[in-house]
Task: inverse folding
């Protein structure tokens, strides 16, 4: 069992997210994170799904996704052949006198402080999930008031595009 | 020309060559029924007693013709009543288009009267579904739905149309229906491996499933089997894909498959699965299925490859085209010794008689003897279904209608109605006392339409198949399986306007079956058998053929 990144181009309709997430739930595949966004073409959305499973299971997931009419293209991204990033906003409990320490930590992690209040800061951090996990470990003792993460977004390195793939539904 | 959405629906159905719609009206679909009324010279409406019956009738019609079956229902309860029929069609890959009405767009999402999110409900049991909120998209949506339903691995597609969309007008331009032409890619990577495995196999065994019937591959399959001289076993869904009287045909595979097939499966060195999906009812413990043998899997659904049982090589594509291609790549083989050995295994395990006074297998055999090769047999779900599947020798595809994947009790009568309309010939239904009571309301439909359906109701006064499990695995705790219903089937037949006969001893089989198959209209034959009869052999669920129970007396 390890982490797999699945990338998909899907129709930009309401209900597509339900179809995709429902398929995972129904067939007992798990989702670590799922990010959806618009694309350069308004007809399509892009999904990046991180899922745990053995290789056979992930192959099954991809084949099942490919069968959905609303899934145009789908593929697994190889972690080395892809760039991947996640964005996190973390609201940390920080008294004015602890602020310099936090600022140093943020500098090391290339995190930006984007909001300040007398007793808190909001740090913005982009990177791979492990980097964000590392940052969280360090700031946890101060107290995390609340936080959000986008889930992973990823693209294949180089000039290839998901558009080059064939849609399974066109092959039968 | 500008026209109402409801008329667009009906015109699109006419475009697609639909001759029957099975359905039931209601407030939110009344506009479409109004247009169906105006087009009644082109499309015949079949009004059933219950929407579930309509959905099974559309399914039966589709299985017999290979065309898309159409069911129409109103919103809310009408829509939920077809859910079982849709799921049934989904599991058995039956092409179907379901059209439901819904509340007007402005009332959607407000828990309006008879509003349900039928699209949400049916996501997991349809190939695809739609809510059409814009009348200008209606025609193309319906066309696309038909294409999806019949292409690739077929299945049901649902289109939910709010009432105001049926009433709004827009431009409609007729279009010829798109034909589905299956493709085959001979350059796919694993096809050469498949050829090699088949060529090298000394003891090949074909395991054929419903995909062979769906892709009209019977001729290609028979020629392929003869070409490589391989014995053939069939899943429940594959019965009729190859003539059961063919010298290479062995019998059914799986939980209630033939013990001789189980033995052949153990001995073979290659299993060639064709349009089949290694369901748990076939494979048992999937991790142990034919472990010693190489497995070649041929299927149009890429997701079936390696889903349940991991194959050594696979061919993805239409079964017929795949078999034709493989045959062209393979030299003619002779495996006389192996084929004879398999034949021997089959003869080693004759099917056991069931019943003291009346043996239902004998009834099935008599029906078989008296029916034409293309006679259609339907079943419900339970012991009677398995006895029929085991004992009837299906000679042609599309002659056996049974709920394989979902195992839907109550499927049979609706399916028989669709089949009788499609084939314009007599249909024989084997049902159980439990199953019959689920949807016997459709007896009224059959009689009203004067359909030639002969129903053999296997009355064992019990939910026999469940009782069998209780006997074998639950210490004879007959919890909720004893029926002993006071129903007088002869009076019931009479009340509905059907003819009724009782059959309770072997000696009467010949005369009663002859009568039941030759009189006009709908006939109900109550076949009284013992309560404790068993479907054997049986592989207990999740086990392997090594655990097959072949005899309970020993
Ligand atoms: C709709 C539905 N409910 C429950 C079941 C579970 N089930 C499978 S076989 C069976 C008994 C069927 O009884 P009957 O129709 O009398 O057939 P028999 O086994 O007695 O021949 C039941 C309850 C089912 N398959 N379908
Ligand atoms: Mg019964």
Result:
């Amino acid at each position: 069992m390890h982490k797999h990144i699945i990338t998909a181009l899907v129709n930009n309709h309401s209900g597509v997210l339900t179809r995709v997430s429902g398929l995972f739930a129904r067939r007992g595949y798990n989702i670590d994170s799922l990010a959806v966004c618009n694309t350069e073409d308004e007809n399509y959305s892009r999904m990046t799904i991180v899922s745990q499973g053995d290789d056979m299971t992930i192959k099954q997931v991809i084949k099942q996704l490919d069968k959905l009419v609303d899934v145009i293209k789908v593929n697994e991204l190889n972690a080395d052949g892809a760039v991947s990033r996640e964005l996190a906003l973390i609201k940390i409990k920080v008294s004015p006198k602890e602020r310099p320490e936090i600022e140093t930590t943020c500098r090391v992690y290339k995190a930006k402080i984007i909001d300040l209040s007398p007793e808190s800061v909001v740090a913005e951090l982009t990177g791979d999930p492990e980097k964000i996990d590392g940052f969280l470990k360090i700031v946890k003792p101060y107290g995390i008031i609340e936080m959000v993460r986008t889930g992973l977004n990823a693209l294949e390195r180089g000039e290839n595009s998901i558009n080059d793939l064939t849609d399974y539904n066109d092959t039968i | 020309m500008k026209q109402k959405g409801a008329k667009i629906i009906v015109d699109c159905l006419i475009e697609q060559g639909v001759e029957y719609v099975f359905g039931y009206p209601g407030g939110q679909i009344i506009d479409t029924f109004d247009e169906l009324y105006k087009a009644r010279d082109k499309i015949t409406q079949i009004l059933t007693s219950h929407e579930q019956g309509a959905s099974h009738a559309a399914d039966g019609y589709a299985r017999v013709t290979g065309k898309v079956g159409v069911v129409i229902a109103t919103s809310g309860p009408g829509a939920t009543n077809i859910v079982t029929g849709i799921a049934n069609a989904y599991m058995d890959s039956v092409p179907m288009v379901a059209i439901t009405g819904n509340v007007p767009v402005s009332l959607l999402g407000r828990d309006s009267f008879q509003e349900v999110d039928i699209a949400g409900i049916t996501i997991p049991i349809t190939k695809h579904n739609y809510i059409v909120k814009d009348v200008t998209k209606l025609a193309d949506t319906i066309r696309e739905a038909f294409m999806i339903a019949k292409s690739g691995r077929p299945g049901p597609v649902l289109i939910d149309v709010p009432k105001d969309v049926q009433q709004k007008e827009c431009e409609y331009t007729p279009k010829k229906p798109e034909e589905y032409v299956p493709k085959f890619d001979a350059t796919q990577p694993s096809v050469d491996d498949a050829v090699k495995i088949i060529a090298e196999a000394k003891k090949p065994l074909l395991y054929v499933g419903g995909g062979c019937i769906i892709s009209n591959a019977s001729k290609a399959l028979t020629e392929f089997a003869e070409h490589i001289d391989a014995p053939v076993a069939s899943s429940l869904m594959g019965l009729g894909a190859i003539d059961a009287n063919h010298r290479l045909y062995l019998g059914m595979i799986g939980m209630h498959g033939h013990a001789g097939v189980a033995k052949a499966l153990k001995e073979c060195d290659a299993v060639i699965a064709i349009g089949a999906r290694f369901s748990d009812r076939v494979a048992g413990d999937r991790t142990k299925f034919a472990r010693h043998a190489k497995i070649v899997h041929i299927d149009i659904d890429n997701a079936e490859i390696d889903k349940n049982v991991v194959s050594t090589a696979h061919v993805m594509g239409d079964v017929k085209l795949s078999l034709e291609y493989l045959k062209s790549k393979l030299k003619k083989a002779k495996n006389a010794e192996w084929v004879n050995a398999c034949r021997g295994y089959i003869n080693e395990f004759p099917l056991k008689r069931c019943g003291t006074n009346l043996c239902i297998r004998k009834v099935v055999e008599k029906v078989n003897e008296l029916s034409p090769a293309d006679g259609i047999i339907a079943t419900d779900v339970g012991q009677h279904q398995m006895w029929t599947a085991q004992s009837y020798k299906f000679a042609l595809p599309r002659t056996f209608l049974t709920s394989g994947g979902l195992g839907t009790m109550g499927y049979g009568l609706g399916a028989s109605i669709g089949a009788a309309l499609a084939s314009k010939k007599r249909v024989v239904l084997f049902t159980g006392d439990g199953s019959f009571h689920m949807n016997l309301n459709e007896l009224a439909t059959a009689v009203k339409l004067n359909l030639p359906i002969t129903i053999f109701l296997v009355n064992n006064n019990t939910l026999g198949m469940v009782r069998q499990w209780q006997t074998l695995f639950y210490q004879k705790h007959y919890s909720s399986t004893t029926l002993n219903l006071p129903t007088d089937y002869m009076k019931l037949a009479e009340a509905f306007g059907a003819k009724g006969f009782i059959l309770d001893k072997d000696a009467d089989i010949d005369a009663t079956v002859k009568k039941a198959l030759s009189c006009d209209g709908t006939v109900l034959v109550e076949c009284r058998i013992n309560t404790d009869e068993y479907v054997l052999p049986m592989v207990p669920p999740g086990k392997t053929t090594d655990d097959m129970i072949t005899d309970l007396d020993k």
Chain A has a mean pLDDT of 95. Chain A is about 30% helix and 40% strand. The pocket of magnesium ion (ligand 2) is lined by residues B 382, 432-434, 460, 462-464 (CB under 6 Å).
